[in-house]
Every structure is written in structure tokens, then in C-alpha cells.
């Protein structure tokens, strides 16, 4: 699970802009933001760099049960 949507909203950045920066389709970025699909590690690092955040900010920690 990722927090891409939350980070985008917090920074006031549109998914369309992120898609353009990444050279990806809006549908692909939207599927990341909606957690229908998870980005590759390479894409996750690229997103973090573009949004100027740490990669860990884009991830939801898994808690041990």
C-alpha cells in the first residue's frame, strides 16, 4: 500500500502533473494513487525525487499483528 495520493494532496500537486514528470500515462499514476497498482521500486524512487520527499513517506508501514 502506498500514500502517493495523500502526499500529492498535501503538496497541492495534481496526478496529471506527476504523470507528465514521470513520462507515464495519467491512468498509470491514478492507479498508483488509488492503490489499484503498486509502482516498481524504481518508479517509487522517481516519484519521491519528483515530489521532494523521502521514499518512506510514500509507504504505509506494515504493523506486525
TrEMBL record:
Transmembrane segments: none annotated. Residues 4-58 form the HTH cro/C1-type domain. PROSITE patterns: HTH_CROC1 (PS50943). CDD domains: HTH_XRE. Pfam families: HTH_3 (PF01381). InterPro entries: Cro/C1-type_HTH, Lambda_DNA-bd_dom_sf. It comes from the Bacteria. This is Helix-turn-helix transcriptional regulator. It comes from Shiella aurantiaca.
